[in-house]
Amino acid sequence: MKKIIKKVKSSAIVKNDGKNFLHFFLAFTVIFVALAVIIIQVMQIGMYKATDQNLQDLARNSAFLQDAANNQTGTGSLQSQGAYGPTNSVLFYDADGNSFTPASTDMGPSDFVLSHLKKAVKLNKNAINTIRTISVHNPYGADWHYRYLTTQIVITNNDGSITPAYVQVFSNVDQIQDAMSRAMLVILTTMVAFWLLSVVISLYLANWTLKPILSAYEKQKEFVENASHELRTPLAILQNRLELLFQKPTATIIDESENISESLSEVRNMRLLTTNLLNLARRESGIKIEPEETTAAFFEMIFNSYEMLAENAGKVFTGTLKLEGTINLDQALIKQLLTILFDNALKYTDDDGEISLDVQKNGGNLIFTVADNGEGISNEDKKKIFDRFFRVDKARTRQKGGLGLGLSLAKQIVDAYNGKISVEDNQPEGTKFIIRIRLDNSMVNPAKIFQKL
Questions:
Q1: Which keywords appear in this protein's UniProt record, sorted alphabetically (predicted)?
Q2: What is the CATH number of the domain that holds 113?
Q3: 323 located within any domain
């Protein structure tokens, strides 16, 4: 049992299942990560847009900056040093990068904020005209969050001289940061939830994509087992017959004619089986329909051949044809299809059996009906009648030379036409096969994975 489990786990299909899951899972992960990054980036740009625009407007307002600089150096008239609105602050630096010293020693609210901004922010001359974000430690509560812009200006002194300087304009974004944090929490929570859901979806898709492969694999496995079984029987008979010949080395051909005849019969069975297997392999690699102009004469010729074969078998054949003008058909495939159904009816009807073939054109469809008055097929067997190697009565079928491959090949031909084949009870007894194909459809159904031999 352990060996079987180990073999299953190491099988190519199980390994491929894991690869499929990994591929789907990685694909979903990349999608969700990329989506989360894009949403957060777009949200940040949108939420900071008004703040950044305000910073740029203040940085371009030379009169405002001159007045703010004069105030910070003690020569201005503004009441609150560095405070320009409830959310804005300004810091100035000289050409050497040293901060201007406030004129007043009274520490008002704005000066308290400015003192902490000075400690947290250093002048970076490489970041001119670049908006950045900074968090400033607040000893009495939550940290402050600012967006700030650094730019270079020229200050006019009281004596008329000009001094180059730098300015940093700050805007408090605590409320925006809180809203951003809540939004990011919602986004990330949602993304993680759907990412975990993608694990389940990946497992489902990996299993779903493997279903047809597993089904085809099982059919191939069953096909090989059935083919081996069918070949084993005639080979065993042939071996026994040949061994009997060796047991009587002095016997003449006439004396052993029965063994020789049976051996030849089994050889013919094996040849028929291998021929049918080869046809199935060729058909499953993709049936190419090659239509040609076909008239009623084509079917009349087939009817004549079937009538002769039925007469030789002591049975009656009736052909009905309702076709006018010319249609396009792959004559080789259609003849093979009808021959399979006729041969099937011929095998399963008793002496004095009756077989009929009806061909009629109905609009854009061509309908074939092959009926017999044989023993019929049970409803349970009708579900499996088109499976390879399936036979209603294996013992009787073997006696009649059937291998259970004909109807499977017939269905492949009908499928190549995107048509439909069905089996019904024929009244009052027997079986009736009905085939419907479209005359304007020459599409070929693709070969199934693992079905090609």
A1: Kinase, Membrane, Phosphoprotein, Transferase, Transmembrane, Transmembrane helix, Two-component regulatory system
A2: 3.30.450
A3: yes
**Domain tally, the chain:** 2
Among 122, 123, 108, smallest CA distance to 71 is for 108
CATH number of the domain to which 406 belongs: 3.30.565.10
Q: How far is CA 10 from CA 7, 17, 213, 221, 416, in A?
A: 5, 11, 17, 17, 36
The residue among 115, 137, 172 that closes a domain is 172
pLDDT tens-digit profile, the chain (453 residues): 445 444 444 444 445 556 777 777 788 888 888 888 888 888 878 888 888 888 888 888 877 777 777 766 655 444 334 445 567 888 888 888 887 755 444 445 566 777 788 888 888 888 888 888 888 888 888 888 899 999 888 887 777 778 888 888 888 888 888 888 888 888 888 888 888 888 888 777 777 877 777 777 776 776 666 667 667 767 777 777 778 778 877 777 787 788 788 778 777 767 766 776 666 665 555 567 888 999 999 999 999 988 988 888 889 999 999 988 899 998 888 988 898 899 888 888 887 789 999 999 988 889 999 999 888 888 888 877 887 666 665 444 444 445 567 788 888 888 888 899 999 988 888 899 999 998 875 444 433 333 333
Q: Is residue 280 part of a domain?
A: no
What's the CA gap between 122 and 167, in Å, rounded? 11
Coil/strand/helix, residue 410? helix
Are residue 431 and residue 292 in the same domain, yes or no? yes
Q: pTM of the predicted model, to two decimals? A: 0.46
Please, are residues 276 and 403 in contact by the beta-carbon 8 Å criterion? yes
d(CA 137, CA 334): 87
Residue 139, preceding peptide bond in cis (omega within 30° of 0): no
**Among the three residues 152, 172, 192, which one is the final residue of a domain in this structure?**
172
